[in-house]
Amino acid sequence: LARTTAAAVIIGNEVLTAKVKDANGAFLAERLYQRGIDLKWMAVVPDEVDAIVAALSHARTIASHVFTSGGIGPTHDDVTVRAVALALGRSVVRLPEVEALIKEHYGARATPEAMRLADAPEGAELLTQEGIWYHTLRCANVSLLPGVPLLFKLQLENVLTRLSGAPVALRCIYLSLGEPEIARVLDAVAHQRPQVAIGSYPQFDSSVGYKVKVTVEHLEPGTADAVVAELVEALPKGSVLRVE
Amino acid sequence: LARTTAAAVIIGNEVLTAKVKDANGAFLAERLYQRGIDLKWMAVVPDEVDAIVAALSHARTIASHVFTSGGIGPTHDDVTVRAVALALGRSVVRLPEVEALIKEHYGARATPEAMRLADAPEGAELLTQEGIWYHTLRCANVSLLPGVPLLFKLQLENVLTRLSGAPVALRCIYLSLGEPEIARVLDAVAHQRPQVAIGSYPQFDSSVGYKVKVTVEHLEPGTADAVVAELVEALPKGSVLRVE
Prior knowledge:
2 copies of one chain form a homodimer.
Chain A: E1 5-11, H1 13-16, H2 24-35, E2 38-45, H3 49-62, E3 65-69, H4 80-88, E4 92-94, H5 96-106, E5 119-121, E6 125-127, E7 136-139, E8 142-145, H6 149-160, E9 169-175, H7 179-192, E10 197-202, E11 212-218, H8 221-234, E12 240-243
Parallel strand pairs in A: 1-2, 1-3, 3-8
Antiparallel strand pairs in A: 4-5, 6-7, 7-8, 9-11, 9-12, 10-11
Helix pairs in contact in A: 2-6, 3-4
């Protein structure tokens, strides 16, 4: 069963220079997980065409769908459309139907620079969304989302309704022992169950009440439950605090 | 003037599947900016050797120092040491001096699996730090930091004291006009001043009290101030709310 895969390119000098904490990457990860789409890779790159093209090229080799965040405004530092076009081997074209929308939306403020918002890689689709005057731009398997978190969230949903996913079942085992004491058991089960994702997350804050959280994930809830049962059986007696 | 550059590889299925919101990337960006080190790129990759090697190889071509976060514990999903060794063309060796430390620290809990914490890429340096029993591992230009945020922060400082930086001067101009109305002026000044980083960040929340924040950065405060003066002069009359 091949799941839909995704990768993301977060474009923004402001994130790399800590002027803004990126919220879009974490939000995207959460929504993709909920929708059952497998996020393989995320990168934060500067507002530079070469850096964006390199990231897009890598992203497209490892995932079936790529999201970009940021760099689609009308100023000199907005170069995402150009970079996506380059990465896809297409030219940038100005779309008359979008020019008309911009004139309608901005009225007297529809400067020549505002018209840059009508630029798109050749062959791009305009995904419309009820209640929003501006479309979401998708070109081949790349969706160009805005960097402003409120708009990112809105337009992400616009894309997600068009992708199919398969959510995994997640189980968590909370343990009173540290990783050195449980590693042997995890090794053995993980080795026997290569199709099941088993994660181990230590906790060094004693107020939390457990030392390690082990996660077990699989598309089939029954398989996840079976692996949890195997782990609980094999782990040292009394070390399992609870299973969720 | 060549500034020290950096790149980061955040290793963690838990971030890509939204079980944990990564805090280390944003913290690293903030500390590097404060220290005057130019962060060029960050990626979040799964706990897979191939994905980590690919990210490290790219990071090393674009930055003089690379930080990894996560994957250095003793369980099956901790593969960072192996990946760093592969990316650098070195073997993994077990360090007897670290084995001794582990035995001392863990006592009866020093299982064979705990001894994996003594593995390192051949030729790695052990950066010691007062008050912490475990060293920070650095190999060539790669520093291997733990994923747990508290430990990441501590060990990051251990590395930062060994790197030199040159902080930039940052100025911010807050404007009452939107990007379409100021893009022409930004274009012209950015074009004339290619060495100065000029950013434009729109704000769509009307309660914030401005429409665009323009940032100006340069190593020389005098140059940053001169560019701010040029922008203020050229921007539409009355559009500048304040400069910080």
